[in-house]
Each structure stands twice: as C-alpha cells, then as structure tokens.
Amino acid sequence: MSSASAEERSLRIAQEPLLPVGQSTGFITGTWSSIKEVLAHRELLGLLVRREIKARYKDSSLGLVWSLAKPLAQLLVYYFAIGQILGVARSIPSFAIFVFVGLIVWGLFTEIVSSGTMSIVNNAGLVKKVYLPREIFPLAAVGGGLFNFGVQLIILIAATIIGGQVPLTPDLALAPLALINVIIFASAMGMLLAAVTVYLRDLQHLIEVVLTVLFWASPVVYSFSFVHAAIAGTWLEQLYLANPVTLSVLGMQKALWLAGSTESNQVNFPPDLALRLWISLFISIALLWIAQRIFSRLQGNFAQEL
161-180 burial string, b = 16+ CB within 10 Å, else e? Predict the structure, then answer.
C-alpha cells in the first residue's frame, strides 16, 4: 500500500510543470524581475534591517549613543586639529556645523559601501541554504546606514536650533536631492562590490584604502573655496566636481550650513550646483541599474564560492 502511494506521489510530481527559479538575465526584463522579487520579499528586507541595527547595539548599555560616538569624535578631532591648530576655522564661519554636515553625509556613504561590500559574505549561511533575491543583503546595509544617518541628522538640526542658525532658506530644497544622490550612488557601489567580493576577498581591504583617499577628495573638513582658489577653471576642478559624493556633501552644506549661505556662494559653492546634482543623480541611477545587472549575472555561483 505504501509502495503504491509512493508511486502515485512520484507520478504526480513528474506531471508537475517545471518552474524557473531565479531572476531573468535580460538587461531590461531582468531589472523588472529583480524589482518584483525584492518587493515580494520586503518583509524579509525589513527584518534584515532590524537585525543589523539590533546586532550593533546587542548587549550594549548605551545603545543608540554609540551611533553618535564616531562622528562626534571625528568632529572634535577635526575641529581642534584642523580648525583650531591649522586655523581653518578662522576662514570658515560656524566651522563645527560645517564639519558635522560633511561628516554625516560621508558616514552614510561609507557605511553603505563598507557594509554592502561584505553583505553577501557575512550572510553566507542564508545564501547557501535558501533561495531569495540576494540584492536584499546590500539593500539591508542601506537601511542600517539610513537609520544612523537619521539619528545624527536629528542632532545636527538640534545644534542649528540651539545655535540660532536654522537653515530656513530656499537652498534647503537641495538637501533631499543631495541625500537621494548619495544613497543611490552608494547603493550602486555597495551592490557591485558585494558581488565582486564573493570572488575576490582581498577587495574589502582595498576598499578601506580607497575610502580613506576619497575622504580627502571631498570638502568635508575644508571648504570648496580652497579647491576653487587652487585649481579654478582647470579640468582638475571639473574632475573634482564629477564625484557624486563631493556634490552631495556640497549640496547638504549649502542646504544646512546657514553661515555658508550668508557668505559669497560663488566662493563656497559652485554656481551650478543644483544642475550638477541633477546630472549626478541620473548618472547614479544608471550606475545602480548596471550594478544590479552585473550582480544578477554573478550571483549564480555565490553558493559555490561561499
């Protein structure tokens, strides 16, 4: 009796149609397929974001306070070392707010890229055991980065209110544009590096070096006016302004650094900053699309490589 049941079961299984598992590899159709799969697993994505946030503060008495420790420590170091000792603060009004705006934008970018780079490797157990859209792992890094950024942004806004420098100007509209730009660009880099790091583990160490260099290639602790004075009108200035992170930092500074907007904007910021941000945003979207398609092509062997 059990043998007959087993045969019937095998027959029914054999008659079931084969259903494809995985994403389409088409450059256009594959993108839509990937978006639908991520949306279908949005609850899992939310759980991964919450897990990442909780893991950072597990067994910690201070909890969220630690999300402020690093940027505040950096702020103090740069404020005294660069602002006071080197005298940069004398030429940049409200230097502390200026630096903090740059630090939280840079922190968001580096956290998304660094966490995204190791997101597949760190979740090797899930990747090898069950099928799910692997894009949710670097996307979870984006969620974790945004959470920390939100906490730091609240502190920044509170500082502007206490200091009587609330940035209620038309330039405030640049803030969401700059924020979206850096998020999309960082997501593209994080997703691409997450896939490549599965095959080249040394890449994670190279990324740390590159991020250190890129930090000084963005006006986080110095004003754009210094760059403009040194290389104004040359191709080096255009190359400098081609960096999406640089443009996002400048955009957030112009939106939230009230003291800078009262000075000559032609000196502190490029005159066509809004246009450059829009162009950078469209390029970042294209990069994210390309990064996702490369990720989709490479993810087929993730389980074997891990």
Answer: eeeebebeeebeebbebbbe
